[in-house]
Amino acid sequence: MTASCATLPNSVKLELLGSKSFSRLHHHRSRCGLSRRDFAFKGIVAAGASVMASTVAAEPSKAQGKFRRPPHFPFFFSPEFLLINYCVRNLVCEILISGYHMGLLLSYLGLEKLPFKPEGYNYWTWRDRKIHYVVEGEGFPIVLIHGFGASAFHWRYNIPELAKNYKVYALDLLGFGWSEKALIEYDALVWRDQVVDFVKEIVKEPTVLVGNRQVLGGFTALVAAALLQDQVKGVVLLNSAGQFGDASTAPAESEENVLQKFVLKPLKEIFQRVFLGFLFWQAKQPARIESVLKSVYINAANVDDYLIDSITRPADDPNAGEVYYRLMTRFMSNQRKYTLDSVLSQLSCPLLLVWGDLDPWVGPAKALRIKEFYPQTSIVNLQAGHCPHDEVPELVNMALLDWLPTLLSAAPSLQSL
C-alpha cells in the first residue's frame, strides 16, 4: 500500500482494495507498476479518498465538541487541506520515483481525437469500388492500415498528433470500415494491390506504411512495401505479423472426386454458411464487441462508444455478412501461402516493431524472431495489449515521432518532397 493510502480508515482501505479499479491500478504491468492513464485515475481515487478520510476523521470531533472551525478560519490551515496536501505530495513523489514526467502526463490528458463522422471523410474509386480514407496534415506522408474488423477510425488518437508534423493517411481496406463491401474472392494480394495503387494514385510520393494486427494490416503493409521498393522508405508493425514457415511445404490441393464435388462440398458449404452466419450475427453485437476488445486491451479505458460504433456501423451493411463468410472460408484458409520468411526476404527498408508485450494473442517472442530474421529491425516494447496505438496512443505516437526523423536524416533528399 502506498503512503498516500496509509492514513485512510480501514473501511475505506477495504472498499478500495475490494474494487476492480484499485486492483487494476496495482496490476503488474511494468517496472514502474503504474501507467500514465492509471496515474490519472489513481489521483482521482486518492483525492476522493482523502476527502472521505477527512470527513470520517472530522465527524467524531464534531460530535465530541473537540474541534469546530471558526467562521473565518482559513481553509489552508484546516485538517482537510493538510490531509489532501499530504496525499498529493506523496502521489507526486511516487510519480517522480517511477520515472514518469508530468509534461508527458499533461500532453496525454490533452490528446486530440479524430472527430467521428458517420458519413466518413474522403472517398477514392479503385477498380470501380468505393474506398474510404482520412487525410490530415502536411509534410512527409505516412499511411496507416487498420487491422481485421477495424477501420481508419481506429487511429483516432494517432492521426491528429502525427498530423502536426506529417501528412497522415488512414485507409479503409476493401470490405472493411466505410469502404465498399465488395462480393469478391478476398486474398492478401487484393489488399496489397489496393495499398500499392493508393500510394501511387493518392499519396504520389515516398512514404512510410504503418500496419496493425497480424491477420490484415501488418501483413498488408509488409507485402505492399516489398512490391514498392523505391516508394516505401520504412515499415512499422504494431503487434502484427504473419507466420514463419516454408510456403512450398504447404499441402497441395488434391483433385476432387465425384463424391467430394457434388455431395461433401455442398454439404460443407451449407454447414459453414449456417455456422458462420450465426457467428457473424453474434460478433456484431455491441456487447460482444466490447467483450472482445476488453479481452485484448489491458487497460480498457478507451473501449468506449466511439470505438464500438466504428465497428458496428460497417457490420450493418447488407453485404457485410457475405463478406465475413468469404473472408473466413477463403482468405483465412489461404493465409498459409504467404509466410514472413518470403516477404521479409524481399524487404529492403528499415522496420520498426512497436509491440504491446501483454498481448494475449501475439506475444513479444514473435517480435524477437522477426528481428533475428531481419536485422534492419528496431523494437519498442510497451506495457499494453493487442492494439497499443489505441490503448496507449501517446506512447505509440512518441515511438513514431522518435523513429521517423531517422529515416529523413538517412535520406536527406526526402525532406524536399
From TrEMBL:
Coiled-coil spans in chain: none
Pfam families per record: Abhydrolase_1
Domain AB hydrolase-1 as annotated: residue spans: 141-391
InterPro entries in UniProt: AB_hydrolase_1, AB_hydrolase_fold
UniProt protein name: AB hydrolase-1 domain-containing protein
Protein's organism: Rehmannia glutinosa
Lineage: Eukaryota, Viridiplantae, Streptophyta, Embryophyta, Tracheophyta
